[in-house]
Design brief:
Blueprint lengths: L1 H34 L7 H17 L4 H24 L5 H20 L3 E3 L6 H9 L3 H24 L2 H11 L1 H6 L4 H27 L1 E3 L6 H16 L4 H23 L2 E6 L2 E6 L5 H32 L1
Antiparallel strand pairs: 1-2, 3-4
Helix pairs in contact: 1-6, 1-9, 1-10, 1-11, 2-3, 2-4, 2-9, 3-4, 3-9, 5-6, 6-11, 7-9, 10-11, 10-12
Amino acid sequence: MSDFLINAGSFLYSAFTLGILWAIMAIGVFLTYRILDIADLSCEGVFPLGAAVAAKIISQGGDPFLACLAAAGAGVLAGTVTGILHTKLKIPILLSGILAMTALYSINLRVMGKANISLLRMDTVYSRIQNLLGITSKAATILVGSGFVLLVVILLWMFLNTELGYSIRATGNNVNMIRALGVDTDKMFLFGLVIGNALIGLAGALIAQNQSYADIGMGTGTIVIGLASVIIGEVLFGNSSVFRHMIAIVLGSVTYRIIIALVLEIDFKFQVADRSFEIAVEPTDLKLFTSIIVTIALSLPLIKQKIAAVKASGASSR
């Protein structure tokens, strides 16, 4: 029984910490995907950019908190480039994101100087808090992750309730209407992309420090992970207000990580005639299952509508 509780505790800790840290990236995706109603693929390059900038600064003896700030600043620059490509050069947002993502691959290699940087036994935001408060590394990780998420949610909620924030939200809702009211929608798209990519860069820095390395390929599949967190959060926890929507995304990110961890535990054997078979999920299968999870989550609203329609037709026939 004690072994089971220890394993369950370790399982939940791992899922919760990863979910909390990835939630910052998911909120950045939410800002472009839901608020602005555009699909920005540059996040797959911005995420490792944030990790690369932070890892480079820390590996050279820099302050880890300043490294996080620099990573967010790098995200601002990347978001600005994507925004200019889309708003000034009139390149469709999908192509703008792909162009930025492609360019960032080379830039990330330039920043790191090699394919990956190890942060083992180096000072990070987690070790700083651990030493400052005299707590365990696990407690420090949860405290730092939760603190950053809470700060991001509160600041973004306050910003989205300003005049500029309402203009950005209105641009995503109806770009033609808000343009007719005299709002420069190009600037709104640019602001949204800048803020969203700043959060994604920050998330890259925090996750690189958590896993003690930055790698050139760590951004692969970032957009799908972000969308999975957003959609799962919306379906399970609702989106009646902006603040509740962001809290739902955080919970959706944690739920997604729990689902992935459970999927990795799949391992069962069965026998057909004289032959025995074993089905086990490998880490290399994660992208496949992530796509399946997102597909199911996207289909849930339609499934709910179909079920409600069947129930309504059954009730009316009585």
